[in-house]
Amino acid sequence: MNHIKREMLQLIDRLPEDASWDDLMYQLYAEGKVTRGLSEDERGQPMTEDAFNHLFTRAESAHSLPEDMRNTLIYHPGNTTTIAMVAGVIAAAFAFVFPPIAWLAAPVALIAGFMGVLAGQQRAWVAMLLALVTFLPFLLAMK
């Protein structure tokens, strides 16, 4: 059996019978076995108690986030929402600079965002909000 596997088994054997995954992660961090995400300087130095507690608190807090916020690779908006977001950003960006572009992009964002909401795509409402915010200067100008 290689050295690393033996160390892992020893670490697991030292854990109490009712240990959770969090307990295992705590021990891995405490013994300096987890170095992923640490800079080269941080890896070579022993971790202070404060730095260790801060790192572990950050790891624990990630558990309370919704899954799509923990890992940005999971977020898949869908084609309708992507079109709506692009149109919404264009509409908002050009609302004060060159309004005719915003007049074209805002309805696209509103309609595509609405279709994304109906299709159940994540965050499609953001494009609708962008479109509505873009219409605000036009409504104010009409008064």
Compressed to H and E, one letter per element, the order equals: HHHHHHHH
| Rg, Cα atoms, Å | 25 Å
Strand content: under 5%
Shape: elongated
pLDDT < 50 runs, ≥5 residues? none
Give the overall average pLDDT: 75
Oligomer: single chain
Sheet/helix structural class: mainly alpha
Textual characterization of the structure:
This protein is an all-alpha fold. It folds into two domains: 3-64, no CATH class; 79-142. It contains eight helices and no strands. Helix 2 packs antiparallel against helix 4 (49-63), helix 6 (79-94) packs antiparallel against helix 7 (99-118) and helix 6 runs parallel beside helix 8 (125-142). The longest helix is centred in the last third of the chain and has 20 residues, at 99-118. It is elongated. The N and C termini lie far apart (80 Å).
